């Protein structure tokens, strides 16, 4: 927003950045505190508006794509291609896997599971893929634009727009982020409560808002670029999330029956309170994964990549340094670990008698 206002001759600098942070964080936090019904109303408006304005941006930005420049770009080696695939997998897949419940939690229990999965996959993959390809084409057409995107993505992308479209584009970018962040902060607040934090739901959302604000302040005022901390956080958190996803996928793969919902809500039920195998796998998978990823652009993550040298992969400066192999290894550790060592426990759970607990209704999960 600061870049946009500066181009319009309305000033920029620290004051605009501070006001922008306060307004955006405030909208996200208030939206998350107001609850699901309000979030859904906001999402409908934001989704339609942002979608239409995104199409307008694509129409005006498309003529700046230079196919001759794209054709002249050098091909990446195998390690670079693998790294790009795994980074994309982390950002567009594993980065959202913990939010799966948000896509089904408030739907009627009679909803088709196939429909829930199908429409969710289509809606969360098709638009990002189109925008990803378009963004790569823009960045590949101009070295200057590509460099600027790393420091200020929203500001850099305004360079290809006419002046009258700057404000609508800025609003599109900001509200697009707000639309996703409202659901994220709401879900994160519920996760804190499920983890045992004894505060009201509004308080849990407030804690998330404080953490989000601290991270935003660091990126805006102390980091030399946006892309370095973004990549660092995404890959660092992507490793343990990949293990967790592997554990869950293997658990689902091995089960022959649906989960006993009543027992999921009871510590004395067939699933127990704490299962040691998943915890051990998450620790082991995270340790192995962090040893196989690196991000030298973020100095505070320089300790990562400690296994690249001992395993003969060239160390943190070698060809495999940015291949993000740790994410894939972490996913395999979680999946294969449960597949090999968790089968007996799952069979025992499925053979256990049903707990006598009142059935869960739609009203209970709303």
Number of domains: 2
Fraction of residues in H or I helices: 55-70%
Our count of helices gives 16
Distance between the termini: 37 Å
Specify Rg, calculated over alpha carbons: 23 Å
* Class by SSE composition: mainly alpha
Low-confidence stretches: 362-366
Strand residue percentage: under 5%
Mean of residue pLDDT values: 82
Strand/helix succession: HHHHHHHHHHHHHHHH
Number of strands: 0
Largest sheet: none
Global outline: globular
Can you give a write-up of this model?
By secondary structure, this protein is mainly α. The protein folds into two domains: 1-66 and 142-222, no CATH class; 84-127 and 226-366, no CATH class. Helix content is 67%, strand content 0%. It has helices at residues 2-7, 13-34, 36-61, 67-72, 78-92, 113-141, 143-151, 153-157, 166-194, 201-222, 227-254, 261-264, 276-290, 325-341, 343-351, 362-365. Helix 3 (36-61) packs antiparallel against helix 9. The longest helix has 29 residues, at 113-141. The model is unreliable at 362-366 (pLDDT under 50).
